[in-house]
Specification:
Layout (H helix, E strand, L loop, with lengths): L3 E5 L5 E3 L1 H5 L6 E2 L12 E4 H8 L7 E6 L4 E6 H4 L4 E6 L2 E2 L9 E3 L22 E5 L11 H13 L1
Parallel strand pairs: 1-10
Antiparallel strand pairs: 1-2, 3-4, 4-7, 5-6, 5-10, 7-8, 7-9
The chain binds ligand MTE and molybdenum atom.
The site of molybdenum atom has 4 residues, from loops.
Length: about 160
């Protein structure tokens, strides 16, 4: 079974499956992501609910988003996304398919344009298998300039 690992500067590291996420109380679920962003579909849980489960250390200040599948990683300031980011994990009652960034896709509802900010659209990491809380900024290989960004999207189009 595919699971999402949440570890690092937390009291209770966890591995969460689709079923574990679906069992999180309804008040922490977003049943229809298209109401937040008309271009997105699926169901999500609030990052805040995941953080409640793991209990970040008081000095945990960065959120690492790791996608082993295509070796894509982002490290973003936790305070900026703590109350608003979500994790999209379902589509029509099934695990989110990889063509939609599944099984787990991080999403910041009001993200900035690519490369303009630490919490830009590029930080909406697809295929996330590991969320890692850290005290200092962690590994981040988001594209730095237009050429890198275009090359990344070209690889995506070919995949
Ligand atoms: N795993 C992974 N996540 C990723 C990327 C990637 O190449 N791999 N590209 C990022 C970039 S640069 C952007 S702009 C958005 C694009 O999301 P979309 O394909 O849903 O439009 O995904 C981000 N998440
Ligand atoms: Mo991007």
């Amino acid at each position: 079974m595919v699971t999402l690992k949440i570890s690092g500067a937390v009291k209770h590291p966890v591995h969460l499956s689709y079923d574990n996420l679906a069992a999180i109380p309804e008040s922490h679920q977003i049943c229809d992501v298209s109401r937040i962003d008309p271009k997105r579909r699926g169901g999500a849980v609030k990052l805040a609910a995941l953080l409640t489960l793991v209990e970040p250390a008081s000095n945990a200040a960065w959120l690492g988003l790791h996608a082993k599948a295509d070796d894509f990683h982002a490290s973003i300031p936790l305070a900026d996304v703590r109350e608003k980011a979500i994790l999209i994990y379902s589509l029509e009652g099934e695990p989110l398919p990889s063509k939609a960034g599944g099984p787990f896709r991080f999403f910041i509802p009001d993200h900035k344009a690519c490369k303009t900010h630490e919490i830009d659209e590029c930080a909406n990491v697809k295929f996330v298998d590991h969320i890692e809380l850290t005290v200092d900024r962690g590994f981040d290989n988001r594209p730095h300039d237009e050429a890198e960004h275009e090359a990344l999207h070209e690889r995506e189009r070919q995949a």
